[in-house]
């Protein structure tokens, strides 16, 4: 039966040389793998009782099999001489030769070995036997019965009778699996779309007093402790198995207490934590957080295109930094951070085994109101705020990666103001009476897994922005930023991670005199972050985090602000 043959493929089942009548005491010494299989043979004997199939485990097993690299597929064998570990002096050589060359119902492992000394169970033998019976049935059905000798048929009939109980049990298992698969197919959400989600509960508090000045130099009220939520719902659709249409919806009512101290021209320069925020355009309103389509181009490259492409997923990534356990200032370089998403495209390709290259163009897309450049005919893809970003990655080993980025940003004026909140992180301050601006940003970062439980990371950014003034002429502002940190993967529990990070969000090295806001009183802000992701179960994690903000908003006169957050993360 074909069903049994399929089961033998999934289990990597083997059968002895049935056509020559192998003795029972030698049955555990030889292996014959089903022709379509590449999965190594199970070492333990299967139980004699009915096996309960876990549906989620079944799906994961099927996905694993479908996504197995091409080089793992078993090699077809047309001659026993192609099996490198089988010699003419082996006791089963003649038997293998018969099965390979007369019936073609075995295959070698990917490395063209037979591995005949591995042990086998009666169930594995029975399933493999059935695979060879299927092959013989095909020969007979094709009108080639004369190709099968009476001796072979007699031997196979005896073996079939000997293993009748095992074959019946295997048929029952396959029938039960078919029933469960049918049920899953009938009840699944979609044949092409998978739904996943993340839900965040946040309890956040911040110290400070009424003397803390925002970037514009105005005092702010001390915030109270807050509790907020944020949900990301992601629909991932594939039409060919190699492409991916991502539709992500989000809703949230967060407003991190630290935002009280950044209100004004610089919205959310620290954002502690990143997920303690509204979803985009208002509290508890569903917004389209991402809408992009990824598909392969050329042999190994891929292209991402869409009206809402998430920048931080593709550029300036550090492997230890997750959005749900860090701040806005840590996800990407602070000279790139606010450009979280936009309309445009990203091209990604490997360059050999150690290098990779990415380049993307993004235009502001309704991120801060209804006048987003990409969807506004007065601005469009190229007339408003936009950025062209390229990254070259070097990975000499799995433990270390180094990245170089360059970004060219065009800054549109809003009511005569360039910079500040919005799509313009390359100028974290504001210049008034301006027409437009152009920025060049250079970023380098690395991450290094020094040992299994310890990693280091860091990044440095340098940017220069030229702002064209309405009165004629221009002004130039130069900035720099850095961040260093350490991570402790699997600390106290597998899947956990502790993180400590210290950074300078931005420091104006020249041109600060032309800034209306952002330069403070000449001070320099520094951020210290500590967080710990603790998985309670596969789908639930607790994330306590603590942030210390020195000289907030670049005012030396501002007191140090402390922010604490306890977050529960639910994934489904």
TrEMBL record:
NCBIfam families: por_somb. Residues 1-24 form the signal peptide. This is Iron uptake porin. It comes from the Bacteria. It comes from Pseudanabaena yagii GIHE-NHR1. Residues 79-143 form the SLH domain. Keywords: Signal. Belongs to the OprB family. It holds the Pfam family OprB. InterPro entries: Carb-sel_porin_OprB, Cell_Envelope_Struct_Comp, OprB_sf, Por_som-like, SLH_dom. PANTHER family: OUTER MEMBRANE PROTEIN ALPHA, OUTER MEMBRANE PROTEIN ALPHA-RELATED.
